[in-house]
Amino acid sequence: MPLSPIPLEAFEKIALGIDRPEDVVVGKDGRVFASDHQCAVAELLPGGAFKRMGPRGGAPNGINMDAQGRVVIANFGIYDRQDGPLQRFDPATGEHETLLSEVEGRRLTSANYPVIDRAGNIWCANSTHAETWPQALDGRTDGFIFVLRPDGSASIVAEGLKFPNGLALSADEQHLFCAQTSGADVLRFPVQEGGRLGPGERYGPVLGRLMRPGEGVGSHGGDLGYTDGIGFDAEGNLWVCLPASNKVVAITPDAAVETVIHDPSGKIVNHPTNVTWGGEDLRDLYIGSIRADYVLKARSPVAGQPQIHQR
Questions:
Q1: Helix, strand, or coil (residue 265)
Q2: 3-state SS, residue 41
């Protein structure tokens, strides 16, 4: 199916009152979960309500799901200057556990987004060791990607990155893609045997400019390129959220860039951070946000790429 823009009137606001729903994940059974700073994870219920589950603590950010239906949580510690570990919550049992709090002797301070492959490797970004947002987005290269393998071993697999953020695996799992927020771009890394990565390269073009000194987020013309969450659809288009521009674009397989969603006013699509697909045909599109107190839902023009927990 062709990739076409989604009109703003097609979106429905659900889970009204949720606290900073950075990300959404949809299980094979159709249950929908979102990040929420008041709990481990919130379940989005039919009809638009939501139910908080698990203990409150830190800043749940990017979430995903393993093949067993457990929600893997990247806890972004920069908000309260606490640790930012990799955690897991089991909706079936209520068990909440920390999987990893340091890698190779380096404390996780801002785990951002996890993705799981068929082998059970959990890939995750640690965005920065900065203490504040202005520091975090000043172009510093203190971010890294790490992996937690099924045998319990963990390694830093890419470093020197400019605020690594959302991650996505290609359908064949031959490449791992990473949004580099303060690089305004996406990087692609070849996946190697044993849960390791080869050297990264830019995938597609730079997606906009960065803020000038003294410039406020609200004073731009919708051309800021700070990248956040990413996700593949079934046609191989990589959707990229640009929260500072209230925009979602897609990098096509031939490296062209198409705007899929844009809300200049921010009244509906307000600082979008992640895209997730669900439903029987994988065309129910969910969009998370760092500013809105709701999750957006619409029908996608293209189905999403099935994730490990949806196969």
A1: coil
A2: strand
The first and second tokens of residue 277, run together, are 């697909």
**pLDDT tens digit string along 39-71?**
999 999 999 999 999 999 999 999 999 999 999
> What is the rounded distance in angstroms from the CA atom of residue 291 to the CA atom of residue 18?
11
The C-alpha atoms of residue 67 and residue 85 are separated, in whole angstroms, by 21
What tokens appear for 204 in the block? 């597609």
Torsional sign, CA 56, 78, 160, 101: negative
Alpha-helical segments (H) within the chain: 133-136
Terminal CA-to-CA distance of the chain, rounded, Å?
A: 21
Query: Given its phi and psi angles, is residue 48 left (phi above 0), alpha (psi -120 to 50 degrees) or beta?
Result: left
Residue position matching structure tokens 């990040």: 35
Contact between 204 and 185 under an 8 Å Cβ cutoff? The reply is yes
Type of residue numbered 303: A
**Closest to 180 (Cα-Cα) out of 205, 212, 149:** 205
Q: Rounded to whole angstroms, how far apart are CA atoms 105 and 114?
A: 20
User: What's the pTM value of the predicted model, to 2 decimals?
Assistant: 0.97
Query: How many CB atoms within 10 Å of residue 189?
Result: 21
Is the CB of residue 121 less than 8 Å from the CB of residue 195? yes
What radius of gyration, in Å, describes the C-alpha atoms of the chain? 17
What whole-number distance in Å separates Cα of residue 249 and Cα of residue 280? Answer: 24
Q: Which amino acid is at 18?
A: I
- Closest Cα to residue 218, out of 185, 244, 196? 244
The candidate with the shortest Cα–Cα distance to 32, out of 18, 16, 50, 20, is 50
Of 141, 258, 272, the residue nearest 207 (C-alpha): 258
The answer to which of 45-54, 150-159, 212-221 has the lowest mean pLDDT is 212-221
Residues 6+ away with beta carbon under 8 Å from 213: none
* Burial call 15-40: b when 16+ CB within 10 Å, e when fewer: beebbbbbbbbbbeeebbbbbbbebb
